[in-house]
Amino acid sequence: MRIRLKERRQETFDIYTFVFDLAGQRFPYIAGQFAFFELDQLELADPRGKRRHFTLSSSPTEHDIVQFTTKLRGSGMKETLRTAPLGLELTLEEARGRFTLPESAAQPIVFLGGGIGVTPFRSMLRYASDENLPHKITMLYSARAPTEIVFRREFELLPQENPNVEIILTVTDGHGEWTGETGRIDAAKIEKFVADIPNSIFYTCGPPPMVQAMEELLYTMHVPDEKIRVERFSGYK
Question: Domains of the chain (ranges plus CATH)?
């Protein structure tokens, strides 16, 4: 499918959202999935080439567009998108992945995220709110500083829009005038904000070290494997 670059937004110092116009084409996907994007050519060299997969941060309810949000790390593909004129054409492949909401709303859902690992959670939260899903969702999201919280304004407003959603934002340093939670996501924070740990399904996403740390934390809290869903962003360390 051919799509066009419609908009780019700088979310934090080094994280950008790229929005693409579907031009009326139908692009079926489930909130939380990823897709491969391929440029026709690169403006800067990239050892990984001109084709890359990104988790979709948009929701299927956001019609006529699809978007991904990524951290810029000097790669030729991302820099090409950052500097390209709006209207740039590229190729989008079908959506893939199983890091998605369960069909049943019987069990509470807990998202544990940090930094760029929040992208599939934004997609799922937006979808759950737009579709008025009955799923009870709690998200704990950690960033180093308030200025590094991706989608901060949207996350502050979502619980007002959807009473089934609770979002806890926490920062680890550079607090300044921050009056919210501080410190990393740990057992104490999970126990403080998650009312029904034994019955909850936990999702964690991000760079492999962060995901591993969250898995190990959940194991110490006796959360079984079958109640842990993970998505590792292999391009980050």
Answer: 2-92 (2.40.30.10), 109-232 (3.40.50.80)
